[in-house]
Every structure is written in C-alpha cells, then in structure tokens.
Design brief:
The chain has 248 residues and is α+β, with helices and mostly antiparallel strands. It has three domains: 7-51, no CATH class; 55-195, no CATH class; 197-248, no CATH class. The protein is built from five helices and eleven strands, in the order ααβββββββββββααα. Strand 2 and strand 3 (86-96) form a beta hairpin. Helix 1 packs antiparallel against helix 2 (30-51), helix 3 (199-205) runs antiparallel to helix 4 and helix 4 (210-220) crosses helix 5 (229-243). It is globular, with a radius of gyration of 24 Å. 29% of the residues lie in helices and 32% in strands. The longest helix has 22 residues, at 30-51. The two termini are 45 Å apart.
Length: 248
C-alpha cells in the first residue's frame, strides 16, 4: 500500500521545475527547486491534495469471477463526499462492498485511489447516502461494516448494512467464482440498532403502536421478502413516526 500524489499536482510540479531550473543559478539543484515548488503548490492546493492523496486501490477480483465488488455498478458514478472536514460535489466514485472502501480515479486517470475511511464521514452515491458508524459494545452494529446506507434519518433511523463476498472454488473445468451480496436492515432506537427482517420485528420495537402498525401492514399489503424488505420497513417506519409520541 503506497501513498500517491495527485497526477495534476505532479504534472504541475514537473513543468514548474523545468521552467524554474532554467532560471536558477548553477548552485541550485533541481531537487531544491522541486521541493520549493511542492511546498508552494501544497499550500495553495491543499483542498485537492487531501482528496487525491490516498493509497492506491488494486482490483483483486479475478477475471473468472462472475459479478463485481461495487455498489450498483462497476462504473464510476458522480458522488458528493464529506472528507477530512470538506465537502466535494460531483466526484466520480465507486464503492467497494467487499472491503468497504470508496474508490476514485486519480485526476490524470493513471491509477485508482481509495479514500481513507477514518477521514470519510459521509458520501452520496446513486441517490443513496452512506454514513460511517462504528460498532460499540452496546450499539448492536456488526463489526465488519463501517458505512451504512441511510434510508431514514432522525431519532429512529433506518439503516442498511450492504456487503458483498467473493466465493471461489475449483471445478474439473477450472477455477470458478461469483460475487454474492447481503443486505441487512437495522432500526435505531435509544442509541441501539436492532436487526429487523419482517413486520413482527418492527412491531416488537414499538409495542405501544402494535395494533396500528399491524393494520397498516395489512391495509397497504406490505411484503417483507428479499425484494421488498427495505422499502416495506422504510414505509412502515415512516408511518410509525406519525404515531409515536414526541422523542420516540
């Protein structure tokens, strides 16, 4: 893993160094001129350097594996990124669901870089907002996930833990592999996050509104199979908020 300087910054520094070396006295070395230019560039362009100065990202999925490791598509998509105290709109991004890493292209396109998770607080990609939440001894979040898809914000948030896994095997025809995806829905209440997969789990969290919630599920014909689980839980929680007392 190595740190890579932005392609734009390298190009600017090299071009500047050539011009400056031609004007410098013989006693000055090109290294001295380059160091001076780099300090000057860093001081004026630090905003961009923070974003494009992460470790290199190398694709680890072998050619014979079916599927890809990214959220939605393996193509770059415009994202808004909250990173290291600044907001960057319109940044082409991919999100690796196997490793939980946000991946972008170096400005000149030579390398893929990954953002440092500790500096990435939130990003919006393809209409989904991912927020960084870490597990604690009491909050109920899984240890392997750092970024959660925030379906519903507020005092009782709805989150989806999205992940992928690469499964490989040897067959008589050779190596085979596929990428499988897993999505788990969590509801937050009083600082704890509860894994929910069906209507009864939601009703147990809000016993004071159990009858009204059960009726809503029936009237709206909400389904909680894999295809509809996220949208149904999200809809049920939006209705729950119209019933819950203030602060719940």
């Amino acid at each position: 893993m190595r740190t890579v300087l932005s392609g734009y910054s390298l190009a600017a520094l090299l071009l500047g160094a050539r011009a400056a070396c031609a004007q410098q006295p013989a006693a000055d070395t090109s290294q001295t001129v380059l160091a001076s230019l780099q300090q000057r560039y860093t001081a004026t362009q630090g905003y961009n350097l923070r974003l494009y100065n992460g470790p290199e990202y190398v694709n680890y999925v072998r050619r014979y594996v079916k599927g890809h490791q990214f959220f939605g598509t393996d193509e770059l998509q415009p994202a808004t990124i909250d990173y290291d105290g600044a907001t960057y709109p319109g940044i082409p991004l991919r999100y690796d669901l196997v490793r939980g890493q946000a991946v972008l292209k170096a400005p000149l396109g030579a390398l893929d870089l990954r953002l440092v998770n500790e500096h990435l607080t939130r990003f919006t990609l393809a209409g989904h907002t991912f927020v960084r939440l870490l597990p604690t001894a009491n909050n109920g979040l899984p240890a392997a996930i750092e970024f959660y898809d925030l379906l519903l914000d507020g005092s009782t948030p709805v989150l989806v833990a999205r992940s992928k896994k690469v499964l490989e095997s040897m067959t008589p025809e050779g190596a085979r592999g596929e990428v499988v995806e897993r999505n788990e829905v969590f509801i937050g209440k009083a600082g704890h996050y509860y894994l929910v997969s069906k209507a009864s789990a939601v009703l147990r969290l809000f016993p004071e509104n159990k009858a009204a919630l059960r009726k809503y599920v029936k009237d709206k014909a909400l389904k909680f199979n894999l295809q509809n689980r996220e949208s149904s839980i999200n809809e049920l929680m939006r209705y729950q908020r119209t019933l819950a007392p203030a602060g719940q």
